[in-house]
Amino acid sequence: MEPAVSLAVCALLFLLWVRVKGLEFVLIHQRWVFVCLFLLPLSLIFDIYYYVRAWVVFKLSSAPRLHEQRVRDIQKQVREWKEQGSKTFMCTGRPGWLTISLRVGKYKKTHKNIMINLMDILEVDTEKQIVRVEPLVTMGQVTALLTSLGWTLPVLPELDDLTVGGLIMGTGIESSSHKYGLFQHICTAYELVLADGSFVRCTPAENSDLFYAVPWSCGTLGFLVAAEIRIIPAKKYVKLRFEPVRGLEAICDKFTRESQRPENHFVEGLLYSLDEAVIMTGVMTDEAELSKLNSIGNYYKPWFFKHVENYLKTNKEGLEYIPLRQYYHRHTRSIFWELQDIIPFGNNPIFRYLFGWMVPPKISLLKLTQGETLRKLYEQHHVVQDMLVPMKCLSQAVYTFHNDIHVYPIWLCPFILPSQPGLVHPKGDEAELYVDIGAYGEPRVKHFEARSCMRQLEKFVRSVHGFQMLYADCYMSREEFWEMFDGSLYHRLRERLGCQDAFPEVYDKICKAARH
């Protein structure tokens, strides 16, 4: 009885404190209190519910039977919109706070919301080496199922809550992308409902124009209702080598060389300052030295980026064997390094052992509860950006990031960019090695001003024929945006498929200049 009374007294005191200080004050200045007491338990409940639901649906094989009916329902909604005069643009009915992007999509309030309840894995075909999934399937669902069957995706982006639809309509990357490309490059077919309510399937051989135009289109060509994705045999562990490197020239040289070696299944770099980094290379294996086994995904383990930093501090190389699924989601518990700004003591051993099993809070719940004041503070004093630049420009790009925003750590992830039609492709006619430079955190540059600093960074990326990931805040004008992206195929298809009156142009959907 006494613990219950103590808990009740603590809860009462907390509510009294909130009453005195005001909820907005607590959410802004002491956000960790709200996150620890409310969002972590809620996030855990969400995870358990969706995990159990996905397992039951797959075991009962009910998803394939229900899928066709759900697609027909989407077609019906689109046709009803058309019959009612097509008065506004359409968009998915999924609430904006549920997305991983920190951007708040105000268009949801003014556009016709088409409800798309498609969140199941439909089929795993090991003979064809294909998995067929609905668009709201998450990477957490995919890894849980596929690794249990001995398979995996060639490119499996990091965070558990990333959805297949978001990774196709936007983009996705992982440390295996130097071999396989971006997430779109492991997809073999898309199924969509178009602006007139018709259903279409597209592949590189069938409706190929649409197949190549869909990635990065942000849902402005049609509603994705299913995708077929390549799978490859999985192994139990990743044999991961850690090598601290000092000096920017040495870092860029080492990172480039490792990215060009086909025997590396995984390549990743964490840059802790302008001239200090740890380069990691890994291969999948079924054998492990038990003395070097590191189950980094266990809740009580140090956050991965902090663990990696120890190799830099001790200036020693290292070799570890990490269970495959835990490797894929190595940055999930700390949301890369964003969680340290929300729960400053989150990597403390005491916190990890007592509460680490509830970490991380859902990004969607963080968005839902942040409020307008906090959102504006984040917008002005926080950076979340991924810029994709040619590998040959890595040194110049790191200097630019350092001078314009000065955010560390910086994530380096190499990828091969094939020469294919669509919004994103190399400048020449051959595939080219690129690198994703990810900056997440509070800028340390003096007199940081979000709009001017980001426009300066965007200008550099355009100048080297690079690309900005579209989940992030984008400050480009319309002319600058279409200088960065090749809109020739995209615009041709929008006209052919009657999208002008059905969906906004991708620029109008994601760029700040179009939404103010």
TrEMBL record:
Q: Which Pfam families match?
A: FAD_binding_4
Among InterPro entries, the record links this protein to:
Diminuto-like (IPR040165), FAD-bd_PCMH (IPR016166), FAD-bd_PCMH-like_sf (IPR036318), FAD-bd_PCMH_sub2 (IPR016169), Oxid_FAD_bind_N (IPR006094)
List locations, semicolon-separated.
Endoplasmic reticulum membrane; Golgi apparatus membrane
Q: What class of enzyme is it?
A: oxidoreductase
Cellular component (GO) terms are: endoplasmic reticulum membrane; Golgi membrane
Q: In which pathway does it act?
A: Steroid biosynthesis; cholesterol biosynthesis
- Domain (FAD-binding PCMH-type) spans 58-234
The answer, when asked if Chaperone is one of the entry's keywords, is: no
Q: Which cofactor does it need?
A: FAD
Q: What is its EC number?
A: 1.3.1.72
**Which family does the entry's similarity section mention?**
Belongs to the FAD-binding oxidoreductase/transferase type 4 family.
Purpose = Catalyzes the reduction of the delta-24 double bond of sterol intermediates during cholesterol biosynthesis. In addition to its cholesterol-synthesizing activity, can protect cells from oxidative stress by reducing caspase 3 activity during apoptosis induced by oxidative stress. Also protects against amyloid-beta peptide-induced apoptosis.
- What name has this protein been given in UniProt? Delta(24)-sterol reductase
| Species whose genome carries this gene | Crocuta crocuta (Spotted hyena)
- Phylogenetic placement of the source organism: Eukaryota, Metazoa, Chordata, Craniata, Vertebrata
